[in-house]
Model the fold of this input.
Amino acid sequence: MISSLGWSLKVPTSDDGTFHLLEPQSACGKKPEYLAPEMFRNEAFDGYAVDLWAAGVILYLMLFGDAMMFAAPIPEDPRFQEICVAGHLKAVVEKFYALNPDPDPVSDEAIDLLQNMLQADPANRLTLMQVKNHAWLKTLQMKL
Done:
């Protein structure tokens, strides 16, 4: 499956095109790691920022599987704190590779992209344009 439309919502806008935060939504039945921290806390949220969070989780799972994944975006989850709050994804990956040698490790550019998509603070997450212009995606585009 490429996408799930279970959380599809229209981002509210004003007549002048200004985007607004969406009202909190129920998280019933959803996998917690896919929910951005602000959604998990049942706060108003930026629909674009939560989409980038979910895309970051999907990319993470594509590159690493569920190894090193946090269980939920909550302060009590030490892996969430280490990766998404403290910004130490590279150190987590290095520890993982030390214990599980991988013949084809994930590049530093991919790790940088993930780190910036999985920011606990939505104001610090990359925008879609920033993701599209990231060095790792540019490198992939050149290879195609």
Notes: The radius of gyration is 16 Å. DSSP finds seven helices and no strands in the chain. The chain has one domain: 32-143. The mean pLDDT is 84.
